[in-house]
Amino acid sequence: MVDALYYAGFGVSDREASHMKDGAFLTLRDHEWYLKKAIDKRQNEQYQFTYAVESVKFRITFDESKVKPTIQKLEKANKELKVIKYESESHIVHIKGRLPAELKCLNESSEMVSFKNFEVLETTLENLEAYVRPEENKQAEMGDLKVHAGLVENKSSDDITEKILAMLYSSSGSVYDGDDKVIIRGTDEKKETMTIKGSPKRQILDIRTDVYQLKKQKESIQRLVGMPHPYHLPLINLLLDEKHAHWGDVSSDRVQKWNFLKDLDGSNEQKEFVEKALNSPDFSILVGPPGSGKTATLIELISQLIAEGKRILLVASTHVAVDNVLERIVENNLNEELGIVPIRIGREEVVSEKVSGYRLDSVVHSTKDRWLKKLETISSQRTFEPFEEELHQSLKSKDGNDVIKNVILDTSNLVCGTTFGILQAPMIKEKNSYLPPFDVMILDEASKTTFQEFLIPALHAKKWVISGDPKQLAPYVNSDFLISSLGFRCDDLRFSPELRDVCLNVFNSKEKSENRSKDGSKPDLYCKVIVLDDDCPYFDQIREQIQYLSQQLEDENAFPLTTVVDSHPIPEDVLRQIMVSKAVFVKQSLFDQIKNLLPPLSEIVGEKELILSNSWTYQRNFFAEKGRNQVFGMSDRDWEGEIVWRLSRMYEMSSSGNDKKHDYLKKDIKMLFPGFNLTDIEYCRKELDKSINNLQKIEIPSIIDLLIHGFGNNDGNKKDIILYTGLPEKTLKNRMVELSYQHRMNPQISEFPREHVYDNKALIDGGEMKHRKICEIGYGSHSFIRNCVCKERSGNINMNEADAIMKELQKIKKWTKEHPKEDGPWSVAILTFYRKQEMHLANLMRKEQPGGRKFFDLKDFNLEVVVANVDRFQGHEADIVLLSFVRSRKHGGVGFLDNRNRLNVAITRARHYLIVYADKDFYKGRRDILGNFMQSLGEDIRYKEDES
User: What range(s) does the Helicase ATP-binding domain occupy (predicted)?
Assistant: First the structure.
């Protein structure tokens, strides 16, 4: 329930407060409904996955009197960073069925005798038992398993795999071994591993959806609308039309001393943003391409805010993005120099090793130890003062950790975590005050964060800094949410699944015919024949839907000739029409009367006994495999699925500036609407259009896109809601800065995205890039193509490209081995757009380098290699990127590769070299960004072998 008293706190009239209350409620009503339906749907969602064991930890209890010398030996070996081999005469550990076993000492207890952890490398669970001194038959306790999630054969599609991985790495799923919940110690998205407690009984585990995050999004919406704080006025403004929004003035105070920013090209823009963010009373927005210095700008802002005594909440959708900022602060010793007291919220396993010492638990323990040692030093020199004695007793008590924790929480001025993980911060979780605990919230990588996800941490701050790049990938879309919500709405409108099937399959008869005409496979010999049961009640609706689609097309002849055969005897004109039709809907009992009139390449959907022609049989079997159990069985997606994937593609095309493709997809959606008689067909179409638009606005756009550009139309409402139209032009201008220069990529790599993605307004090379020391492997260019013609299609796998990449890697390894990097290993990212190609490449890598999964540490070659999907590699970078495009003539089309933002992410990950593997002739004829990119690349420039 919405209480108007809270809106009175904004200092407006009663009438205005009432208007704001109603406006906020109406704007977020659909969000709340959508989240409720998503929670209902996901509570019963469950998937299965298998796993492969990478390593095992054992916890071993030692008898001090018997093994203390051994412990000392282990400690010494560990300090010398040596790997300890199994020694039969010492009987340190016995691994049943695995002799000798390679052991790695991980951890010593401070008392040396209470426990020890070991990691058993490259083993399996079969017959795996550990004993300390086998002659005593003392069994060690099984510790943690580090495992890789994998597919259950024949059960998991690419989409399902992405869902499983997203659930694992976002902690939005709970894992079960039968009825027993599996404790997840942590996950590593980069290496695609998770650490679990103990040994599961089953090889196949279940992952069930945890709706905690969805519930928190719903609660945040309810709280903002129902109980807003006066500091939340800017958030409420987003839910109103421009006329009723109240934006504060941005002052013009100047920064007197800069703490972190360097005088590079673009630093004036960075400084301009810092001053705007300090002076803005509400929002500030930092936009910048890859490598433009967004992180450095945020660090400068943090230092200035802390100098003003402000408390900051730093969040992002991923752990990597959060740790990236914190690592830079620590590496530059800014926490010491500028008084930054950071706290990282998150489990040890998901936090970067470089900043794990700043986790709350770690800081509590290290601070307590430091204080106790200091007090012990004092006590050895003199008697405690009363306050020292009191502090000493408090630290020694069972509540000693709480004493330290409270002090740390009171003094910390930078609290860091993911948008959901931050809810575990004590100042939020245990908050008793109505007042937001943070002065400023900074959201990094905002192009990956939806409005409802942003809202969770936003409620705990008084103003907000948004940083990101709208020209990179948008938030991950869980199509299941959209599909189920759309299905619920259709049912409400009495647009049943069976009637949706009618619309889908009449539409598909058009699509299949068009595709046959485009792929050059003798369209004159092709016809789609759908054989229906005699008692099918939908023949009238099929006729009406065919007529509706014909009317929707501007060209009267655009809709392929489609014939309905449902009466006996079959009229002569219908029989003649069958001979030139591209689609036929026919009763089963009438099929024999028309079969001799069908073209030789007809595809038949129906009962097997109807199929007589060999050519028909193949087509029928092929299509039956792709069909689902519907009334018609003509599509591998249901009606809702066909709508939803088009919504996602429409947003991609709109973001990419491809208005023609966007409009084409939008027209497709209209053609999937019902054209036959319902109770109120016009009302049904109007409500479907409204529901689809609402779902699209809720799930697909990022918060940074909404603030800058808004999102499409506004449902035909007279009032333009700011959340969907974007911040008013003047308001935005005073709060946003776009960074123009890049400091990451070799100029040859940045040239294409600068011109074709950023319109020469951003990604300009910083002056220092021309003088930066680079790796000179011997290529003639820093951005070029290896032309790979696909000889045969195998799903979304291109073996030629994969083999070429493996060959290239051998050359790179030879160079990196002879030329070690000064500041750590060289890095190579093998990227592709398709999950199956990613898996194939990873399998090839594992043959070369056993033990890894997607991440391979090639120490002997001074090299780290990661195999990844482009979408998951956003936010990362590498010295060398090997990019596989996969699609070729054999695949029939480019799929989603024409998405400008996806291509931008792919080609801006490399620092020194970008090597593309693709069938250049297949792409270069295209008149879009993909074709332009291929044309911009040099031909196959051969590797210059060292003649010596």
Answer: 262-496
Question: What mean pLDDT, rounded, does the chain reach?
Answer: 80
Q: Do 150 and 49 touch, CB atoms closer than 8 A?
A: yes
What six digits make up the tokens of 199? 């040994």
pLDDT band at 549 (very low <50, low <70, confident <90, very high): confident
Q: Cα–Cα distance between 420 and 752 in angstroms, integer?
A: 36
Longest dimension (CA), the chain: 115
Q: Is the pLDDT of residue 764 over 60?
A: yes
pLDDT at 39: 84
Distance (Å, rounded) from C-alpha 337 to C-alpha 329?
Answer: 10
In-domain check, residue 295: yes
Question: Helices H, strands E: what count in the chain?
Answer: 33, 32
Share of residues in the chain with pLDDT > 70 (%): 78
Q: Note whether 79 and 150 are same-domain residues.
A: yes
Q: What is the dihedral of CA 203, 204, 205, 209, to 10 degrees?
A: 170
pLDDT band per the 50, 70, 90 thresholds, residue 940: low
**pLDDT grade for 386, boundaries at 50, 70 and 90:** confident
Q: Classify 432 as helix, strand or coil.
A: coil
**Does the pTM of the predicted model rise above 0.85?**
no
Query: Measured between alpha carbons, how far is residue 750 from residues 51, 272, 674, 747, 772 in Å?
Result: 40, 24, 47, 5, 15
pLDDT over 50 (residue 75): no
299 and 386 fall within a common domain:
no
DSSP 358: G
Shared-domain flag, residues 366 and 309: no
Domain that holds residue 293: 228-341+415-475+702-739
3-class DSSP assignment, residue 515: helix
User: Rounded to 5 degrees, what are φ and ψ at 567?
Assistant: -130, 150
Residues 501, 614, single domain; the answer is yes
pLDDT of residue 657: 75
Q: Residue 243 pLDDT > 50, yes or no? A: yes
Helix axes 681-699, 639-655, angle to 10 degrees: 50
Q: What is the pLDDT of residue 662?
A: 87
Distance CA 380, CA 531 (A): 95
Neighbours of 368 (CB within 10 A): 17
Q: Which of 46-50, 404-408, 498-502 has the lowest mean pLDDT?
A: 46-50
Return the SS3 of 931.
helix
- Domain annotation covers residue 287: yes
In a domain, 668, yes or no: no
Query: Do residues 371 and 322 both lie within one domain?
Result: no
Pairing mode, strands 855-858 and 863-869: antiparallel
Q: Which residues pair with 85 in a beta bridge?
A: 102
Highest mean pLDDT among 160-174, 703-717, 847-861, 896-910 belongs to 896-910
- Distance (Å, rounded) from C-alpha 100 to C-alpha 225? 64
Helix ranges, 493-599 (H): 497-518, 539-552, 572-578, 591-594
Residues 154 and 99 in one domain: yes
Q: Are 879 and 827 in contact (CB under 8 A)?
A: yes
Which of these three, 592, 615, 636, is where a domain ends? Answer: 636
Judge whether 291 and 386 are in contact, CB under 8 Å.
no
Together in a domain, 580 and 618 = yes
Overall number of domains in the chain: 5
Q: Which two tokens stand for residue 102?
A: 């390679």
